[in-house]
Design brief:
Layout lengths: L1 H37 L14 H11 L10 H17 L10 E3 L2 E3 L9 H11 L2 H9 L3 H32 L4 H7 L8 H4 L1 H14 L24 H26 L11 H22 L5 H30 L1
Antiparallel strand pairs: 1-2
Helix pairs in contact: 1-10, 1-11, 2-10, 3-5, 3-10, 5-6, 6-9, 6-12, 9-10, 9-12, 10-11
Enzyme class: translocase
GO molecular function: NADH dehydrogenase (quinone) (non-electrogenic) activity
Membrane topology: Multi-pass membrane protein
Length: 331
């Protein structure tokens, strides 16, 4: 029991440290990719190829003054960024990042907790993340922040419905809510990947997940094209950085989720070992998210909500019904 607790604590520490570092590195990669797409310069002065720009940004975040606006609810204002970062990391608990491997005579399972309702846990904790931007906007005593909080409530709650419904159809086929079971269901090679039997569910989950990430062009919560920054208008320093880390950590974990749910997870891909295969899949989706940010203009709130409730929601319901009838007919 003691060994299990120590092992779990080590895994938690590694996940937090590794994904925090990856979030910082992802900002550098994104700047370089956006520069290539949009014919800009990008980071190129601080260190070779601008790599040390990450360190410069970190120093700036840690040393910048932490300001609390007058009239703000100080306790909630300070807690809100912690909620965003914490939920992003807690949602990673049931995600199997890599296949099992042996080290120092021990079998290592790269998952914090293999619970039998893994998908529900991820969706539930991800939905709780709405309290971060919501409380941040309400507590800041700023009309711009509260408008960002209202956008957060509308956008995140709407697309949570679509992401949840989109996963019902794959769950009907697999018969389990465990992410490891879903991964093992696709162990028969590329032909067994769920993206081929559930292409609509794949697209719906990808669209909904992208919208929930608050990424351009769906960044209505913190609209970078506006003068203010939505719910984060009054934040500075490391508290603003925690929102930032939470966003990138969620982007990486979503890439892992999509890879496990629809693209065979960490099963070997031909001659490519499973661990390398899932890393390649995750890197592809991260690049896809950055590509979308570089290529597409912002959408209006009414366009985004129209897409959610008039297109994605009916498609998700229809896909669940068709999958259910086909599955019953096959049995």
């Amino acid at each position: 029991m003691t060994l299990y607790v120590i092992e779990t604590l080590i895994k938690i520490l590694l996940v937090v440290l590794v994904f925090s570092a990856l979030a910082g590195f992802a900002t550098y990669v994104e700047r370089r990719i956006l520069a290539k797409f949009q014919r800009r310069i990008g980071p190129n002065l601080v260190g070779p190829f601008g790599v040390l720009q990450i360190l410069a940004d970190g120093i700036k975040l840690f040393t910048k003054e932490d300001i609390v606006p007058s009239g703000a609810n100080e306790i909630i204002f300070r807690i809100a960024p912690v909620i965003t970062a914490a939920t992003a990391f807690i949602a990673m608990a049931p995600i199997p990042f890599f296949p099992e491997f042996e080290a120092f005579g021990m079998v290592i399972r790269p998952i914090i907790s293999d619970i039998n309702v893994g998908i529900l846990f991820v969706l539930g904790v991800g939905a709780a993340g709405i309290y971060g931007p919501l409380l941040a906007g309400i507590s800041a005593n700023s009309k711009y922040s509260i408008l960002g909080a209202a956008r957060a409530a509308v956008q995140l709650l709407s697309f949570e419905v679509v992401s949840g419904l989109s996963l019902l159809a794959p769950i009907i086929l697999v018969g389990s809510l465990s992410l490891i079971d879903i991964n093992n269901y696709q162990s028969g090679g590329i032909a067994s990947w769920l993206i081929f039997s559930q292409p609509i569910a794949f697209l719906l989950f990808l669209f909904a997940g992208y919208a929930e990430l608050n990424r351009t062009p769906f960044d209505l919560l913190e609209h970078e094209a506006e003068v203010v920054a939505g719910f984060a208008t009054e934040y500075s320093g490391m508290r603003w950085g925690m929102f930032f880390i939470g966003e990138y950590a969620s982007m990486i974990s979503l890439s892992f989720l999509v890879s496990i749910l629809f693209l065979g997870g960490f099963n070997p891909l031909g001659f490519i070992p499973g661990g390398i295969a899932i890393v390649l899949k995750v890197m592809f989706f991260i690049f896809l998210f950055m590509w979308a940010r570089a290529a597409y203009p912002h959408v209006r709130p009414d366009q985004l909500m129209g897409l959610c409730w008039r297109v994605l929601f009916p498609l998700a319901l229809l896909n669940v019904l068709v999958t259910g009838f086909v599955n019953l007919g096959g049995n």
